[in-house]
Write a structure and sequence with these properties.
By secondary structure, the chain is α+β, with helices and mostly antiparallel strands. The protein has eight helices and 18 strands. A five-stranded mixed sheet has the order 10-9-11-12-13. Strands 14-15-16-17-18 form a five-stranded antiparallel sheet. A hairpin with a 3-residue loop joins strand 14 and strand 15.
């Protein structure tokens, strides 16, 4: 990918005297440019966030892959030109276009909306985010299948089922997106990988006690990752109801067991013989969402803390990344595990914010 193409995806880009660049980091709520972009000697771009966001998270926020950081010149074979293979419209209750998700081949995604001049702006900053097929979801009286990705949702619609998903992929679930599903019968079908299960658990946590009925389906088959795979390998939508399980089947990792006192809410989790503690203080509802002071400790030693909006996935990812750098690599506990546990902890805090 070219340097110019990556810079075009960023905001407030400023060139430095040494030829490098600073820009707003897309992986967290950045107000002062903290993302440093420079070229390494091996013709690869280096993305360094001074707030602690890792390169993988930054690439996800930009809808690019790590391979895209190799510059298309100077002896490197150019990467295959990306082609738009599908677009998915997110329409509001009245059928008005709010934004669009664009799918490319090789597989990657971007989001765009129409600006005041009617031109495509390649971001959805400040744009209301909604569920896919929102109008149909609001009026649905039958089972709603919740899947990961617009392709799988549309495929189920083609087979006569009601289905939805949320924009931005597995790391971008927002609590407010659960509202249209309240009082509905919802069956969650996760992608069968770590990110897919974490995403499904986040959705489930938002709907427990709110949905009329909540079930899940773990698709059978060792080579089946998602609904598309299952149908391509002979799955029949008529069998979906037979595959339904209690929602507890999703929670393959420990659910938070909250401890409450006068000043904080904590969850203490054992990881390889040490206590990892998530602590929330000063929880309050503000105009932009639920805010709190979150601290992550290991064996009573602080790893990281932040004042943040617990509903913002980028804020949670940044805090988890900062804490993960201080956990010994020989522990059987990864950065992805920490992110998932922090997500679970924050989602449960929603019930305490009143």
């Amino acid at each position: 990918m070219t340097l110019e193409a990556i810079l075009a995806k960023l905001s407030h880009v400023k060139k430095q005297r040494d030829g490098s660049f600073f820009a707003l980091c897309p992986a967290h709520n950045d107000h002062q440019p903290s993302l440093h972009i420079t070229e390494a000697g091996d013709r690869k771009l280096l993305l360094k966030c001074q707030a602690g966001c890792d390169t993988e998270t930054i690439c996800q926020a930009l809808n690019i892959t790590l391979a895209d950081l190799f510059i298309e010149s100077g002896g490197f074979a150019p990467l295959k030109e990306k082609q738009i293979v599908a677009t998915y419209d997110y329409l509001d209750e009245l059928g008005q276009l709010l934004f669009q998700v664009v799918r490319y081949e090789p597989k990657s995604f971007s989001q765009r909306h129409k600006d005041k001049q009617g031109e495509w702006a390649w971001n959805i900053k400040g744009v209301r985010q909604i569920l896919y097929h929102l109008a149909d979801i609001l009026t649905a009286t039958e089972t709603i299948y919740f899947v990961e990705g617009e392709k799988d949702a549309d495929l189920l619609w083609q087979w006569g089922q009601v289905a939805t998903t949320s924009p931005g992929g597995a790391n971008n679930w927002k609590l407010e997106l659960a509202t249209p599903l309240a009082g509905k019968r919802v069956v969650i079908i996760p992608d069968k990988d770590t990110a897919g299960y974490n995403y499904a658990r986040a959705v489930a946590n938002s709907l427990i006690g709110k949905a009329k009925e909540l079930k899940c389906i773990i698709l059978p088959g060792e080579k089946v990752k998602d609904v598309s795979d299952w149908l391509e390998q002979g799955g029949d939508v008529a069998d979906l109801d037979k595959l339904e399980q209690d929602i507890s089947a999703l929670f393959l990792i420990e659910k938070p067991s909250y401890r409450l006192d006068a000043e904080s809410i904590t969850w203490v989790k054992d990881i390889t013989g040490s206590e990892l503690t998530f602590k929330a203080q000063a929880i309050q509802q503000e105009r932009t969402g639920v805010h709190a002071r979150l601290t992550i400790e290991l064996a009573n030693n602080p790893l990281a803390w932040s004042l943040l909006n617990i509903e913002r996935s980028e804020d949670r990812v940044r805090l988890a990344n900062q804490a993960a750098t201080k956990i010994s690599e020989n522990r059987n506990y990864t950065k992805e595990d920490l992110r998932a546990d922090l997500d679970l902890f924050c989602l449960g805090l929603w019930d305490f914010q009143l």
